[in-house]
Every structure is written in structure tokens, then in C-alpha cells.
Task: structure prediction
Amino acid sequence: MRAVTFARPGGPEVLVWGDAELAAPGPGEVVVEVHAAGINNADLLQRRGNYAVPEGASPILGLEVSGVVSALGTGVVAWAVGDEVCGLLAGGGYAERVVVPADLLLPVPAGVGLVAAAALPEAACTVYSNLAMTADLRPGQTLLVHGGGSGIGTFAIQWATAVGAHVVTTAGSDRKLARCLELGADTAVNYRTEDFVARTLEATGGRGADVVLDIVGGDYLARNLDALALDGHLVMIANPGGTRPPLDIGLLMNKRASVSATTLRARPHAQKAAIVAAVRAEVWPLVSAGRIRPVVDSVFPMDAAAAGHELLAGGGAVGKVLLAVPGR
Ligand SMILES: NC(=O)c1ccc[n+]([C@@H]2O[C@H](COP(=O)([O-])OP(=O)(O)OC[C@H]3O[C@@H](n4cnc5c(N)ncnc54)[C@H](OP(=O)(O)O)[C@@H]3O)[C@@H](O)[C@H]2O)c1
Result:
């Protein structure tokens, strides 16, 4: 089969659409003929040599795909050849074919195209596992989500709005702020020109946000805690701003605050399967009802994967950037 590979770490130019081997599906696994794969920041880090591939995972990039089931390993009863699916991977998505554990697959939701479905698994599983399963965001509460124009942010805004939460979000351009408001955010803050702590307190009558989803880290830790309500929960999923900021434990105690930090990719298989099952039960009905839509900025053919990586790295995309297998 063909896949996007790279012989040495480096810039987008190292990516090559060439030949690669596909392993046979083991028990409980299926083969998916890939139609599209989502590009994630972890792919960019891995391409640069800054993200170790988890043990046993494919070295080929790609943490989420959509496509059609073409073969079943022994013991798989939940799927049939020909099913249209999307799913979460530990790697291997930038390819014509990929082997996926059956319990990490989801059906393509009603009303969603087969290519666009590749925009959903990573965002849905990250958002739901952190905001619902970890931080327990409830109807009527307020979520502050940073990076509202990102793949994660566009999904988080829609999910939180759909479950009846209020949303404050941050982004770095007027175009992204406008899109965040269209997606349902109540307050959109330009973090380059405005103080998101003051805007969050203003939007909540001084209470602060009940849940904060952070993708920045570093000095955002202190500011996120300032923006957090009593009994609030800060969840961190990325740390480009730094990993060792000072932490005011007194403030944490006074606010009775909880702080969590997670990565999806490195979770044990059983945890990922539980998240996928919960997403299918709780989030997929909202997608099928049209209350959450995949937000796709651009689709590049896999043999132009470098252009997709450049777009995501440049910060110009609103929502997801996808790679489609040529000819499908
Ligand atoms: N831990 C996990 O399990 C997990 C899973 C998935 C993703 N992630 C991480 O979550 C982050 C978002 O993922 P993604 O795929 O959605 O990313 P993405 O689509 O590449 O978007 C990232 C966006 O964040 C915005 N941003 C950067 N600095 C910001 C700041 N200080 N305040 C607000 N927004 C800022 C940028 O847009 P503007 O600056 O133009 O607004 C950038 O385009 C990435 O760092 C990714 O690695 C973590």
C-alpha cells in the first residue's frame, strides 16, 4: 500500500507518499480502507522528532481516520465489511489502509460525509473525556476554552453549547473570533489584545468559569486559576507555553480547585475504548442531530501532506485540516 512516510525527522518537506507495509489484522482488529485522516499537532511534533511513538504503535503518522471496513480479524462481530467508520488510532492513519482495534471505531454519524468524519474522533474523544468524564461540566455552568478556532476548540464550543453550558473562548484573530461566535460561544476574547481573566469574570458576574480547558500551559496556569470559579476544574491538554510554572497552592485551596492534565494517545487501550463507547453513546446523537458539525478548514491529498502540515503549523486554519487518499 501507499502511505506518507519520512526517513529522517525534519520540516514538512521530509514527508513522502511512498510504499509501506500493512500488518495483518490480529484478533479484535479490523482493516479500514482510509478515505481521510485528520492532521494533529502531535503529528507535527512526531515529524520533527519531538514525540516518541508509543510502544507497539505504527511509526506512520495519523491518529484518526475515516473510511470503509475491508477485512475483519478473528472475533470481531460489531462491524461488517463495507461499514463506513471513523476511528481513533495510536498511529498509522496517513495511509491507504490501516489496522484498527474494533472497539476504537465509531460509525460515520448520519448527515456527515465520509471524508469530513475524519475530523471527529480525536476532537470528540479529547473534548468529551476531559470536559465530561474528568471535569464534569454541567448544563448552566460556564466553560472557558482556549484556542476556540482550533480543531479541539471548535468541537468544544459546539459540544458545551449543545449540553447547555455557557462558553467563553479565546482566539488570536477577528476571523477566528467570529467563527467561534457562529459555533455558539457566548463570549469570544482576542487574547492578543484583551485580558481573558477580566473578560471571563465579566461574563460570569464575577464568579469565574466552572471549567477551563487549556492548550497553552506556562504562565496561563496562574491566569487560568484567577479565571476559575470556586469548586472549578482546570484541565490542561497541551503546554507550548512551558511545563514548570509556579503554582499558588493557597489559591488552589481557597478556590477548592481541581487541576487535571491528560494525553489521549498514551492512555491504555481499555481507557480509550471506554472513551470511544461514551462518545458513541453521549456525543454521536448530538452529531447525528446536526447540533455538532465537523469543522473542516481544508482537505489536502495525501501526496501533498506537507502543505497540510504547513497550514496547521502556521495557525491559519479554523477547525480541522484533513488529508484525503487520492482517487477515493
Ligand atoms: N492532550 C491531548 O490528549 C490532546 C489531544 C488533542 C490535541 N491536543 C493539543 O491541543 C492543542 C489543540 O489541538 P488542535 O489539534 O485543536 O490544534 P490546532 O487546530 O492546530 O490549533 C491550535 C490553535 O491554538 C491557537 N492558540 C495558540 N496559542 C493560543 C493562545 N495563547 N490562546 C488561545 N489560542 C491559542 C492558535 O490559533 P490562534 O492563535 O490564531 O487563535 C492555533 O491555531 C494542541 O496543542 C494539541 O497538541 C492535546
